[in-house]
Amino acid sequence: MRWNRIILLCMLALPLALQHSTPTNSQSSFYNMSYLYFGALNTYVDQVEKTKGSLNMVSPNYFDISKEGELDITWRLQTSFILEMQKRGIKVVPFLANHWDKNAGINGLENRDKLARDIANAIDKYNLDGVNVDIEGIDHAYRDEHTDLIRLLRKYIPSDKEVSVAVAANPNGWKLGWHGFYDYNALAKYADHLIIMAYDESWESPESPIGPVSSLSFFERSVQYAINQGVPKDRIIAGLPFYGRMWKLDGPNLEGQNITGKGLSSTRVEPLVNQFNGSIHFDKNTQSSYATFNIPKGQNAFVGSTNLTEGDYVIWFENEPSISAKLSIPSKYGIKGTGSWALYHETPDTWDYYLSALNGTTNNKEQMKRIGSGTLGIIKGSDVRLRSNASLSAEIVQTLASNTITKVSGQSVSVDNHSWYPVELQDGTSGYVSGSYISKFELKELYGKNRYETSSLISNSGWEGEAQSVVIGRGDVPIDALTGSVLARKLNSPLLLTESSKLPENVKSEIDRLAPEIIYLLGGESAISDAVKKQLQDKGYEIERISGNSRYDTAVRIADEVGINNELILTTGIESPDALSIAPYAGLSQTPIILTRPTSIPDEVRNIIEQHNITQVTIIGGEGAVSGNVEAELEKMGVQVVRVKGSNRYETSVAIARHYSDELNFSDLYFASGASYIDALPGSPLAAKSGAPIILINNGTLPSAVKNFLQNDLTATPNVVILGGYGVISDSTRMNLFKMIK
């Protein structure tokens, strides 16, 4: 890891390393390790606990090289932790670091015989399982000394103990500089494993490209280089990052500091996105995720000591789709396994999918969680008996706890004055439960491999026959499509998403199935190109493009197409899911959604208010999204202003549902990710068809506002529709959601 390119703060991330052991039953058939560096010592066991049995080895920072080149046992070493890990069958292989101190590293190499002997003695004294050498920032002139240190360690450390070495990723085959410091072929003669630090494709510098920390291509080529250097595949471990990098796109912050590739924990991304109404995207070319957000004037946030002030930001980081893509590489090339920098920086859902993605299979844990669409049943009451047949005299298969989630697998059967439902548990166990103790609801999950396929599947679900019209919005920049959802409802039309320059094949097929008479394109040529328009015209479809000079103007023109009475809904023109949450009511009532700047009303909006004698404007979101200045401007124009808001996007979605509870129908509830909401956008006209609200949830613990809504605002058990796949709303999040439904 490039320590000189990351500021060490409690939320940042840096190096990498690994080692081998015999996997336990809960562990992967591929080797898996992670570093321990962050957090208080009393959290170390808990950090490992969160990996759910995924690790073969942990590598804490117990060994440093002092400036004089001597071994320094760090304050982090805990014999109690070592014993606890070994009880669990997890090896403890500390990493030896110079922390990018060039002089310390060189002195250690020149003092390598004593350094190696001291490390061997420390391993014996503390009953450690080996050492992982992670010396960085030294150039190729010391390549042979580095290799010789590994040779000496292998000589002095018992053969049943681990000797591994962390090496810089070298997909470009550089021979000079710090990349040339690592002689892959020679190191493999002595090291049990080479741990490739397959990250820092971008780094903290004005010279760094804005982009992924580790794209799939970078990760894969790093593995290929090791193989081509003659490293045995069973000695190769590919390390991936649990951190991201952030750029401020419009110059320095108000303190004059440029933010160019600043490292930060993956756990920090979603809170920033939520706080500033940003969005999360996936770049299919690099197979990497990134987040965008705008901090309004007068607001700020801190990442460590760095002040994020007003402006536009992008963070390239790792989440389920990007990590899962990289986890396919070990099986593709037959290498030993993976490692990660570092625990404490992974998002809570990481270990729900890590092993299954690494093994290319669905593990038992996942099979238990992933119930899928159909009739679900929630067990009501404690110690409810699951019987082998529909009878009070039938054998008791097991006793079920309250809130157990089941799949109802057939129609009820009346026996012994009871209605019995056949059910299947998450682990595959089946039986019958008395209808008195089960609350049923219908679950529909709508998602595809990407947002375009998701839009096609939603269309197919809601419009089984043909449709007279189709509305199409751009999939990567969704702002026009957000306001176009009201038009789609007016036309009783599905809302499909397209790439800017070409129509995805699955969307093309869905349009052909729908056989519309007219297709509406939302946005100008820079949003949806004339090439897409021509593709559709060549098939004989009538095309109408609705576009303006800006997103604000386009929203106004869409409003004209919808029809304007005396009310408008106003949301921020900065990407935000607020427009998604209000879309069902807006579509149902045919109230146009208009966009505004956070602190001032665009002229286009001012004109439409005056021309149509608008008497009421409903602002969606708090002052962080639409400021009090906008509200004051509206009131000066003689407009009655109503604001529907929460303290965050999740609370706002609940506030919308409550505010319009007389108009909306709570017998169906739609749920979408508040962080990665574009997949859910095509579901807004579908929700409007049934008058259902769209509630936003995060990927992890359910927001308290959502819990409160589910427990207190529903008079009956609703049917549930989830918009988006398991990458944006995980298995565990879904199960937590179902258990909250009464």
UniProtKB/TrEMBL annotation:
<dbReference type="InterPro" id="IPR011583">
    <property type="entry name" value="Chitinase_II/V-like_cat"/>
</dbReference>
<dbReference type="InterPro" id="IPR001223">
    <property type="entry name" value="Glyco_hydro18_cat"/>
</dbReference>
<dbReference type="GO" id="GO:0005975">
    <property type="term" value="P:carbohydrate metabolic process"/>
</dbReference>
<dbReference type="GO" id="GO:0004553">
    <property type="term" value="F:hydrolase activity, hydrolyzing O-glycosyl compounds"/>
</dbReference>
<protein>
    <submittedName>
        <fullName>Spore germination protein YaaH</fullName>
    </submittedName>
</protein>
<dbReference type="InterPro" id="IPR007253">
    <property type="entry name" value="Cell_wall-bd_2"/>
</dbReference>
<dbReference type="InterPro" id="IPR029070">
    <property type="entry name" value="Chitinase_insertion_sf"/>
</dbReference>
<dbReference type="InterPro" id="IPR003646">
    <property type="entry name" value="SH3-like_bac-type"/>
</dbReference>
<keyword id="KW-0326">Glycosidase</keyword>
<dbReference type="GO" id="GO:0008061">
    <property type="term" value="F:chitin binding"/>
</dbReference>
<feature type="domain" description="SH3b">
    <location>
        <begin position="374"/>
        <end position="442"/>
    </location>
</feature>
<dbReference type="InterPro" id="IPR001579">
    <property type="entry name" value="Glyco_hydro_18_chit_AS"/>
</dbReference>
<feature type="domain" description="GH18">
    <location>
        <begin position="31"/>
        <end position="361"/>
    </location>
</feature>
<keyword id="KW-0378">Hydrolase</keyword>
<keyword id="KW-0732">Signal</keyword>
<dbReference type="InterPro" id="IPR017853">
    <property type="entry name" value="GH"/>
</dbReference>
<dbReference type="Pfam" id="PF00704">
    <property type="entry name" value="Glyco_hydro_18"/>
</dbReference>
<dbReference type="Pfam" id="PF04122">
    <property type="entry name" value="CW_binding_2"/>
</dbReference>
<dbReference type="InterPro" id="IPR051922">
    <property type="entry name" value="Bact_Sporulation_Assoc"/>
</dbReference>
<feature type="signal peptide">
    <location>
        <begin position="1"/>
        <end position="26"/>
    </location>
</feature>
<dbReference type="Pfam" id="PF08239">
    <property type="entry name" value="SH3_3"/>
</dbReference>
